[in-house]
From TrEMBL, chain A:
L-glutamine binds at G47, E48, S49, R106, I134, R135. The gene is pdxT. This is Pyridoxal 5'-phosphate synthase subunit PdxT. InterPro entries: Class_I_gatase-like (IPR029062), PdxT/SNO (IPR002161), PdxT/SNO_CS (IPR021196). In the presence of PdxS, forms a dodecamer of heterodimers. Only shows activity in the heterodimer. Keywords: Glutamine amidotransferase, Hydrolase, Lyase, Pyridoxal phosphate. It comes from Gracilibacillus ureilyticus. Coiled coil: none annotated.
UniProtKB/TrEMBL annotation, chain B:
Coiled coil: none annotated. HAMAP family: PdxS. It comes from Gracilibacillus ureilyticus. Pathway: Cofactor biosynthesis; pyridoxal 5'-phosphate biosynthesis. Residues 7-212 form the PdxS/SNZ N-terminal domain. Keywords: Lyase, Pyridoxal phosphate, Schiff base. Homohexamer and homododecamer. In the presence of PdxT, forms a dodecamer of heterodimers. GO terms for biological process: amino acid metabolic process; pyridoxal phosphate biosynthetic process; pyridoxine biosynthetic process. This is Pyridoxal 5'-phosphate synthase subunit PdxS. It is an enzyme of class 4 (lyase). It comes from the Bacteria. D-glyceraldehyde 3-phosphate binds at R165. Catalyzes the formation of pyridoxal 5'-phosphate from ribose 5-phosphate (RBP), glyceraldehyde 3-phosphate (G3P) and ammonia. The ammonia is provided by the PdxT subunit. Can also use ribulose 5-phosphate and dihydroxyacetone phosphate as substrates, resulting from enzyme-catalyzed isomerization of RBP and G3P, respectively.
């Protein structure tokens, strides 16, 4: 069974753990950087990205998180997690992990009263995914290596680059675990031992 | 087809605040200090609760100028308070684009009988509760988030502790009950039956429950987290301490790592003096904010 961590500094941590367990992986709340060594993949949950960044800095999580991704371990960022993964943020010169080649805009759909849910087609995952958007960001533009997986009214709301996955919406707030299952497969694939020639 | 203002969207917003600290602020400068310290949201007010208590008179919704100033100053969510039952204050705050409305006993109630029908609004609400009956009634009216009432503006944690323990003990009692007993329990609590059944089936409240009303130190915040709070509101505790930025940062860290006592000791060192507290028994019964609403 693969072990999937959920960064446990702030936000919807419990919901992601529930979703990870529902798709048959072990879920571990990651509160200390040393715990990154225990897991095969990581979810950056929804929450407040400014709060998470402050806590990431406070506990020297930034470099370990970047290294985790650079070692080829899969990372899935939802909402605030998507912002953490991007290498460019509109109106902010200090992007966070810079692991995905994309430019994102915070609160791009508006304030809470504009938050919504809608049915989405996610390439390779579902044609009818119930997506909950909360003060959500979207992806303004992507680099050549980023694959767009879903759009809503022309804006990019889910994408993948190699072993990195992100969504502007919150799969953890519904009982639809298909996107988490998709991520679990990514983790399993990355975790397969490299076959040695006989 | 997209839908706004659904239960999932409203309750989900509060889920995203979990493990975080929501801070009362009265102007843009304080809002920036709060955001910088790692607050997950700010509550825009005209006066913090301890000043409301000191000023006396009627406490109302904040001047929209202040709310707007705070909204323009930060990118984190902005909450604001409306008086219990004041439909128009709530609608005005919603129209301004406030992210969450606190139907709050800190302000003087506009209606002593009816709370707002919160299902009618697109904006989500947070409401105070002292026990499961009150929590379930507010959920019945559509609140998307709960908090303890505590005793606001006192810097005294005792009431928030009482309310958090009471709600959680009653939830446990309900979960362990036989279904036959739930209707009678609903009658005793004055709680909607369906809400109680839902809590019983899921083993927990359907919305998050934060601590509020009396949190003055990092240890207070961590205590409430240990008692099962999903996060904390700090009202007067930050900007009535003698070093707000220090207190704000320390309370954020203690909330995240509420079981790490070495860390709480470290962040509590040399941060300055906490707000001056108020012993509950010295407050005249008619001045007790927690008794407002039902």
């Amino acid at each position: 069974m693969v072990r999937i961590g959920v960064l446990g500094l702030q936000g919807a941590i419990r919901e992601h753990i529930r979703s990870v367990e529902a798709v048959g992986a072990e879920g571990i709340v990651i509160k200390h950087k040393e715990q990154l060594e225990e897991i095969d993949g990581l979810i950056l949950p929804g929450g407040e990205s400014t709060t998470m960044r402050r806590l990431i800095d406070k506990y020297d999580f930034l470099e370990p998180l970047i290294n985790f991704g650079k070692q080829g371990k899969p990372i899935f960022g939802t909402c605030a997690g998507l912002i953490l993964l991007a290498n460019d943020i509109v109106g902010n010169d200090n992007a966070h992990l810079r692991l995905m080649d994309m430019k994102v805009e915070r609160n791009a759909f508006g304030r809470q009263r504009e938050s919504f849910e809608a049915e989405l087609e996610i390439k390779g995952v579902a044609s009818d995914f119930e997506a909950v958007f909360i003060r959500a960001p979207y992806i303004v533009e992507v680099g050549p290596e980023v694959e767009v997986m879903a759009t809503y009214k022309g804006s990019i709301v889910a994408a993948k680059q190699g072993h990195f996955l992100c969504s502007a919406f919150h799969p953890e707030l519904t009982d639809d675990h298909r996107l988490t299952a998709y991520f679990k497969e990514m983790v399993e694939k990355a975790n397969e031992p490299v076959l040695q020639g006989v | 087809m997209s839908k706004v203002g659904t239960d999932r969207v409203k309750r989900g917003m509060a889920e995203m605040q979990k493990g975080g600290v929501i801070m009362d602020v009265v102007n843009a400068e304080q809002a920036k200090i709060a955001e910088e310290a790692g607050a997950v949201a700010v509550m825009a007010l005209e006066r913090v609760p301890s000043d409301i208590r000191a000023a006396g008179g009627v406490a109302r919704m904040a001047d929209p100028t202040i709310v707007e100033e705070v909204m323009n100053a930060v990118s984190i969510p902005v909450m604001a308070k409306a008086r219990i039952g004041h439909i128009v204050e709530a609608r005005v705050l919603e129209a301004m684009g406030v992210d969450y409305i606190d139907e709050s006993e800190v302000l003087t109630p506009a209606d002593e009988v009816y709370h707002l029908n919160k299902r009618d609004y697109t904006v989500p609400f947070v409401c105070g509760c002292r026990n499961l009956g009150e929590a379930a009634r507010r959920i019945g009216e559509g609140t998307a988030m709960l908090r303890t009432k505590g005793e606001p503006g006192t810097g005294n944690i005792v009431e928030a502790v009482r309310h958090m323990r009471e709600v959680n003990a009653q939830v446990r009692q309900l979960v362990n009950m036989s279904v036959d007993e739930v209707m009678t329990y609903a009658k005793e609590l004055g709680a909607p039956y369906e809400v109680l059944l839902d809590i019983k089936e899921n083993g927990r409240l359907p919305v998050v429950n934060f601590a509020a009303g009396g949190i003055a130190t990092p240890a207070d915040a961590a205590l409430m987290m240990q008692l099962g709070a999903d996060g904390v509101f700090v009202g007067s505790g930050i900007f009535k301490s003698d070093n707000p930025a220090n207190f704000a940062r320390a309370i954020v860290e203690a909330t995240t790592h509420y079981e790490d006592y070495e860390l709480i000791a470290k962040v509590s060192k040399g941060i300055g003096t906490a707000m001056k507290g108020l012993e509950i028994s010295t407050i005249a019964p008619e001045q007790r904010m927690q008794d407002r609403g039902w």
